[in-house]
From TrEMBL:
It comes from Dichomitus squalens (strain LYAD-421) (Western red white-rot fungus). This is SGNH hydrolase. GO terms for molecular function: hydrolase activity, acting on ester bonds. Residues 1-18 form the signal peptide. Keywords: Hydrolase, Signal. SUPFAM superfamilies: SGNH hydrolase (SSF52266). Transmembrane segments: none annotated. The keyword Flavoprotein does not apply. Belongs to the 'GDSL' lipolytic enzyme family.
Length: 265
């Protein structure tokens, strides 16, 4: 069921407040849980055909549970409109963590057709009209900010993560240029004071050090979806970013910063 996005925040916050305890606080779990919201690069099963999402390996680095709610083919917009962010808001408890990473499916054009995933261009509150359905479409930053604020209102710790890179060795030489959604994720984080991990840059740096032949082997089908081995490397790069940022989630990482390959940026 689609949501009226502009009304998402007040509805969710009101719903959260109705379930708060008498002193205005929210119930906590004995052990916090990490929830993952993203696309196929994070999701169980990846893009299919022997690939895997990096979210499937994050739990091996943490001392708290991880629930992978990433879904293949989703964007910040479609994840919102399908009510998946609402489900997360209804599920989290104070002290939980939510890692949000989109971008691979958010591009495209709304000039003639609408695939239901493309966001309106811009990094603020710009709007577009879907040429297919006539509905209002918002920006990537708007969708992420509204979801992030609603999750924070429940007491969750929100981490915005930049999208993973496509194979940076695809041309035979190393090339990595962050997409606009990398900057958009950082903008969303700064807007609401959430944590930010430049996952794309951490992965790119690690892939550069591993070299052409190794990294090419991580992409068995296309330049976006990694093999299980590649997904494990991508997960470790996210952990490195968390440790280097020394945010709240870092306290739940089993590894020390020096034991995770790569350098802080």
């Amino acid at each position: 069921m689609k949501l009226l996005v502009v009304a998402l925040l007040p509805v969710l916050v009101a719903s959260a407040a109705a379930r708060s305890q008498p002193d205005g606080t929210f119930e906590k779990r004995a052990t916090p849980t990490v929830y993952l919201a993203g696309d196929s690069t994070m999701a169980k099963g990846g893009g299919g055909s022997g690939t895997e999402g990096w979210g499937q390996y994050l739990g091996y680095s943490l001392n708290i549970p991880v629930v992978n709610d990433a879904v293949a083919g989703r964007s910040a917009r479609s994840y919102t409109e399908e009510g998946r962010f609402q489900t997360l808001v209804d599920t989290v408890k104070s002290g939980d963590f939510v890692v949000i990473e989109f971008g691979h499916n958010d591009g495209g054009s709304l000039s003639t057709t609408d695939n239901g995933r493309t966001d309106c261009p811009g990094d603020g509150e710009q709007t577009c009209t879907s040429p297919t359905t006539g509905e209002t479409v918002y920006t990537f930053v708007f969708y992420e900010v509204e979801a992030g604020k609603a999750l924070q209102a429940k007491g969750a710790n929100v981490i915005f993560s930049s999208q993973t890179p496509n194979n940076p060795w695809e041309s035979g030489t190393f090339e990595y240029t962050p997409s606009r959604f990398v900057g958009y994720a950082q903008k969303a984080a700064s807007t609401i004071g959430a944590a930010y991990v430049d996952h794309g840059q951490y992965v790119a740096n690690r892939f550069q050090s591993l070299g052409l032949s190794t990294v090419d082997s991580f992409y068995p089908n296309d330049h976006t979806h990694t093999s299980p081995q590649g997904a494990n490397i991508v997960s470790a790069a996210f952990v490195k970013g968390v440790l280097c940022a020394n945010d709240v989630l870092a306290a739940h990482v089993k590894n020390t910063t020096s034991s995770v390959p790569g350098s802080c940026i």
